[in-house]
Amino acid sequence: MQVLPITTEVLHCEMDRDCASDVTHIGSKGYLYCANHAPDRRPGEGCRALKGWEIALLESGQPVPSYKPISFKTYLITKNKRNLDGYNLS
Ligand SMILES: [Zn+2]
Predict the structure, then answer these.
(1) Number of structural domains the chain divides into
(2) How far is the CA of 82 from the centre of ligand 1 (A)?
(3) Distance from the alpha carbon of residue 13 to the mean position of ligand 1, in angstroms
(4) Dist. CA 76–CA 88, nearest whole Å
(5) Which of 11, 25, 52, 81 has CA atoms 20 to 30 A from the CA of 71?
(6) Does 85 fall in a domain?
(7) pLDDT tens, 40-65?
């Protein structure tokens, strides 16, 4: 039986479906690219390198919160606030 790593389905360069390189960049429209394909993104689409904690999020199956870079601390605060809102505690 072949066991595939859990990241195979989640982390995928969206420039080329056959691209097997690791995702390292995010475009302004939320598409994910590898370092090789990031410079070839659609004209007019911004692109930036993902931070380490953002890649860790993707590997755990969660989306990157925003194309606009935020700090990990801001992410945690926003996430906690959202959870609290969900329980009507705010
Ligand atoms: Zn690629």
Answers:
(1) 1
(2) 33
(3) 5
(4) 18
(5) 11
(6) no
(7) 887 788 899 999 999 999 988 888 99
